[in-house]
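Lecture notes, continued. The same structure-token format from the folding unit now serves as the input rather than the output. Read the line below as a description of shape only.
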């Protein structure tokens, strides 16, 4: 019976390929949106990854940077700097804000840098200086290109204007870009004196970051201290949670569409071959064998569609970031595994209606004129 199912697919190559292409389109949408979501979520934590202190210290109750705010009194930084095992403490100010750039507005992480604190600033430059002076700003090169401005032009944060003196690389995402200004300028914007947002703590060689984090929290009140890798995971989880519902909804909608396509194609195959199937039943072919052949057809169509979607994702999606640099894309192997499991469900569900029809088929109908 599987031989009949295979021959049945081959006799309708155009219809089968069209159905597989429809299934592939549905899966491609899921893979693409997943790639955008994962790419943007990864880009959101790029500042944390490149800064790389051993320990992050912040206000108690805060465990991430994305969409968060933190304030620490400066005396706490001074106290932490005196603790055994602490090599260096680098404070930054941080603000989620809107940057007015040209005639556009962009959400941005605004980082205030103290003089000489290059380790907390941009890690790669396209043009200009990497550290700002008072009244100056460093903005992402992609953001400058989108707004058609360059070095020497001005941007504004709240009601304060800044001269662009540098264009940084790898600091832009659709969710949030990263803008660098001086500590004093951001302090004026926040109307805060004697406070920091985050402390970047470097440890002496051989010091365990987990143990030192615990000691810092025990010795300094109302703070949270997290080893670098733990802080990255916490921030990434937060950014992922904000879009999981959207990806889940897209997966459900596209999977339902793929199921309808597979079900309609398998049903059409059965309807076109119902006389042959009736004869097979009249000759003693068991229902289960015929139902299995219908399921085989559904699996074959879905597998072909899934394969087409994977090939597209691996060859085309990585090139989109080159053509559209403002979009961060990340094709994840785990996404293929998840879509593969969805494809299996689609194949089974898509075969239910035609399988039910076959089970109800009257063998005597083969002899009706």
């Amino acid at each position: 019976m599987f031989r009949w199912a295979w021959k049945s697919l081959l006799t309708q190559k155009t219809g089968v390929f069209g159905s597989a292409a429809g299934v592939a389109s549905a899966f491609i949408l899921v893979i693409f949106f997943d790639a955008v979501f994962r790419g943007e979520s990864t880009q959101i934590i790029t500042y944390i990854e490149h800064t790389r202190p051993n320990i992050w210290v912040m206000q108690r109750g805060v465990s991430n940077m994305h969409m968060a705010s933190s304030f620490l009194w400066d005396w706490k930084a001074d106290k932490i700097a005196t603790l055994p095992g602490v090599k260096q403490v680098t404070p930054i100010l941080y603000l989620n804000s809107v940057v007015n750039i040209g005639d556009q507005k962009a959400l941005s992480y605004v980082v205030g840098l103290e003089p000489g604190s290059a380790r907390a600033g941009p890690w790669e430059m396209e043009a200009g200086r990497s550290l700002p002076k008072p009244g100056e700003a460093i903005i992402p090169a992609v953001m400058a290109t989108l707004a058609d401005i360059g070095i020497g032009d001005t941007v504004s944060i709240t009601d304060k204007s800044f001269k662009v003196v540098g264009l940084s690389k790898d600091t832009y995402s659709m969710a949030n870009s990263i803008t660098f200004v001086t500590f004093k300028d951001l302090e004026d914007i926040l109307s805060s004196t004697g406070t920091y947002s985050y402390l970047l703590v470097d440890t002496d060689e051989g010091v365990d970051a987990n143990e030192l984090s615990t000691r810092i929290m025990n010795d300094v009140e109302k703070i949270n201290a997290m080893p670098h890798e733990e802080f990255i995971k916490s921030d990434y989880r937060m950014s992922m949670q904000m879009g999981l519902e959207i990806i889940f909804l897209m997966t459900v909608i596209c999977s339902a569409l793929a199921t309808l396509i597979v079900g309609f194609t398998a049903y059409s195959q059965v309807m076109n071959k119902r006389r042959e199937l009736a004869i097979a039943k009249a000759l003693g072919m068991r229902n289960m064998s015929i139902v299995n052949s219908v399921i085989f057809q559904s699996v074959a169509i879905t597998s072909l569609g899934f394969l087409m979607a994977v090939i597209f994702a691996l060859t085309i999606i990585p090139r989109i970031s080159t053509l559209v640099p403002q979009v961060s894309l990340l094709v994840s192997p785990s996404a293929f595994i998840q879509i593969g499991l969805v494809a299996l469900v689609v194949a089974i569900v898509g075969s239910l209606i035609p399988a039910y029809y076959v089970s109800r088929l009257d063998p005597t109908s083969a002899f009706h004129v």
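Point for the exam: The two ends are 25 Å apart (CA to CA).
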